[in-house]
Design brief:
This protein is α/β, with parallel strands linked by helices and 291 residues long. Strands 1-2-4-3-5-6-7-8 form an eight-stranded mixed sheet, with helices on both faces. Helix 4 crosses helix 5.
Length: 291
């Protein structure tokens, strides 16, 4: 429905774009300074609308309607195709490489990706004997459901992955960990706070998933970006019908005593700033790799 509405709105905008240059806008103003004043106001107002509305709403539309890319072949024949159910019953698809040391790691990809985005991480873990489960989050790759680049609802996918691994003969249920990338890192913070059967967590590139998360930033940059990011999250809620849940800063404080490794590897979207906040809020044992 929202995709159809977006297409109709696009056609209207194209029509306006073609017609406006042919109309003598502003000529009704009595004086030349008044006409130029109207134009300056229009330019400034247009810039504000683009910054605080069109860009964030457009970004939210893409995040909740992302196109599925072909998955292709697994890294090797040792990775077996698997299908398991999320905790709400959605059918998820992935690959599983059996454990050689009794431990297994769930890999949760980023918001716009699928299982192929964590192939290199899987190969690293496999070389050290770990079992690995790579899967497509709901709405991505070959899994059922609707996409949500913010990761809202993905905790149900991880819960299903935990059940899948706990039932395997090659896995010790007390040795199941998880590694999340970007959006996947945000999701694992929530899961680790609520599921103590997840025995270790690596959150690589955690950031924000709600307006409340963003407002935890200090300084002018945070308030300057608030209109964009808060509008984006509101639009994503409208388009997806989902909601973000609790603040990550509050959730990370409940992860201990589960071991937590935070990794901040970039400056995009305040990644380092968020991870400093989460490291300070987390209980031991926690470590921050600030790259």
């Amino acid at each position: 429905l929202t995709g159809g509405l977006a297409a109709a709105a696009g056609l209207i905008l194209i029509g306006l774009g073609l017609s406006i240059p042919w109309r003598h806008r502003g000529e009704g103003a009595a004086t030349r300074p008044r006409r130029w004043g109207n134009r300056v106001v229009a330019v400034l107002g247009g810039a504000i609308v683009v910054y605080a509305f069109l860009y964030p709403v457009g970004f939210a539309l893409v995040q909740t309607h992302a196109f599925r890319e072909p998955i292709g072949d697994p890294p090797s024949a040792a990775y077996k195709p698997v299908i398991f159910a999320a905790s709400d019953g959605l059918e998820l698809s992935g690959w599983y490489r059996a454990s050689q040391n009794g431990a297994a790691v769930i890999l949760v990809h980023g918001g716009g990706g699928d299982r192929t985005g964590s192939r290199a991480h899987a190969e690293l873990l496999v070389r050290h004997g770990y079992g690995v489960l790579l899967y497509d989050a709901r709405g991505r790759g070959e899994s059922e459901g609707s996409p949500n680049g913010a990761g809202w609802g993905w905790q149900k996918d991880v819960a299903g992955a935990l059940t899948f691994l706990a039932d395997r003969a090659d896995v010790d249920s007390d040795r199941i960990g998880a590694l999340g990338l970007s959006t996947g890192a945000n999701v694992l913070i929530e899961v680790a706070a609520e599921h103590k059967d997840l025995n270790a967590v690596v959150a690589d590139g955690a950031g924000m998933r709600s307006c409340d998360d963003f407002l935890a930033l200090d300084g002018g940059a945070g308030w300057l970006g608030a209109p964009v990011f808060c509008t984006m999250f509101v639009a994503a809620r409208v388009f997806s019908g989902a909601s973000p849940g609790e603040r990550l800063e509050d959730l990370v404080a409940r992860i201990g005593p589960t071991p937590l490794l935070l990794i901040a590897g970039g400056r995009g979207q305040f990644e380092r700033d968020f991870n400093l906040i989460y490291a300070k809020a987390a209980r031991e044992p926690v470590e921050l790799w600030d790259l």
